[in-house]
Amino acid sequence: MSTDIKLVLLDIEGTTTSISFVAEELFPYIRQHLRFYLESTWSTSQTQEDLAHLSGLSIEDDAKGDKGFPLFNFNKGDGLTQERLDDAVKNVLSQMDVDRKSTALKALQGHMWKDGYASGQIKAHIYEDVLPSFERWKSKAVPIYIYSSGSIGAQKLLFAHTLYGDLSPYLVGHYDTTSGLKTESQSYENILKDINEKGREIRAEEVLFVTDNILEAEAATKVGMRCVLSVRPGTKELPASHPFLAVSTFQSLPI
C-alpha cells in the first residue's frame, strides 16, 4: 500500500493536534477576547469584512426561520455602537455554542488567533509522532496537504506556531470548508481537482486521507481515496465494526 501512496491529506483536530488544545485553549481564547477584539478593530477593513460575512449568514438564517442564532444585521461602514457590538458577540457565541462550522465564523476566529499566536499567548499542540512523519514523507517526496474545518488562515497559523517550532515548510497546501463540507464526497473531488489543476498528477487512490471522523473517511472513500482513522485521546469512539485501519500514532500509518 505504501508504495502506491503519492500524497497525504490530513485532518487537524484529533489527528495532528489534540482535541483538548482546540477545546481548552483555542476556543476559550475567542470567548475571552471576542468583545475587546471587535471593539478595538471594528473600523479595520478586515473586521468590517468579517462582520459583513457574519451578517450575511445571519440574515440567511433568519430568512430560513432558523431562530437558533441571534440576528446580527450589519453593512460595511456601519460604525461601532453598543447594540451592534452586543449583537455581534451574541451571534458569534451562539454559533460557537453548537460548534457550527460556518466559513464566516471560522474566518473571524482565524484572525483573532493570529493575534494570539503573534503575541505568544497561543502555542499549538502537535502530537510528538507528527514531526518525524512529516520528515519521513518529505524525504520520500510525498507532499502533505491539510483539510480542516478551520479556515486556511487558522491552519497556517497553527502549524507556524507549534511547540516544535514552525512546521509550515513541510506543508504543500491547505483546504477548508470553502472546498465543501468534510462529510460530503464532492468536497474531496473538489480538492483532488484543485491539486491536479495546480500541476500534480494524482489519482484518488494515490491519496491517503487521515481523520478522526468516520463520516469524513466514508465520504473520501466514495471518491476512491484511501482512508485511515486517527484514534487519539478524546476522539469519538468508533463503531464495533468498520472497514478502516485505525491507528493511534502516525508511526503506524502505511507509508
TrEMBL record:
GO CC term, one of those recorded: nucleus
Entry superkingdom: Eukaryota
Enzyme class: hydrolase
GO biological process: L-methionine salvage from methylthioadenosine
Record carries keyword Magnesium: yes
InterPro entries: Enolase-ppase_E1, ENOPH1_eukaryotes, HAD-like_sf, HAD_sf
Reactions that this protein is recorded to catalyse: 5-methylsulfanyl-2,3-dioxopentyl phosphate + H2O = 1,2-dihydroxy-5-(methylsulfanyl)pent-1-en-3-one + phosphate
EC number per UniProt: 3.1.3.77
Assembly notes: Monomer.
Protein name according to UniProt: Enolase-phosphatase E1
NCBIfam families tied to this protein: enolase-ppase
Amino-acid positions noted as binding substrate in the UniProt annotation, renumbered to this chain: S148, S149, K182
Annotated Mg(2+) binding sites: D11, E13, D212
Pathway: Amino-acid biosynthesis; L-methionine biosynthesis via salvage pathway; L-methionine from S-methyl-5-thio-alpha-D-ribose 1-phosphate: step 3/6; Amino-acid biosynthesis; L-methionine biosynthesis via salvage pathway; L-methionine from S-methyl-5-thio-alpha-D-ribose 1-phosphate: step 4/6
Organism of this sequence: Planoprotostelium fungivorum
Record keywords: Amino-acid biosynthesis, Cytoplasm, Hydrolase, Magnesium, Metal-binding, Methionine biosynthesis, Nucleus
GO MF annotation terms: acireductone synthase activity; magnesium ion binding
General function of this protein: Bifunctional enzyme that catalyzes the enolization of 2,3-diketo-5-methylthiopentyl-1-phosphate (DK-MTP-1-P) into the intermediate 2-hydroxy-3-keto-5-methylthiopentenyl-1-phosphate (HK-MTPenyl-1-P), which is then dephosphorylated to form the acireductone 1,2-dihydroxy-3-keto-5-methylthiopentene (DHK-MTPene).
Compartmental location: Cytoplasm; Nucleus
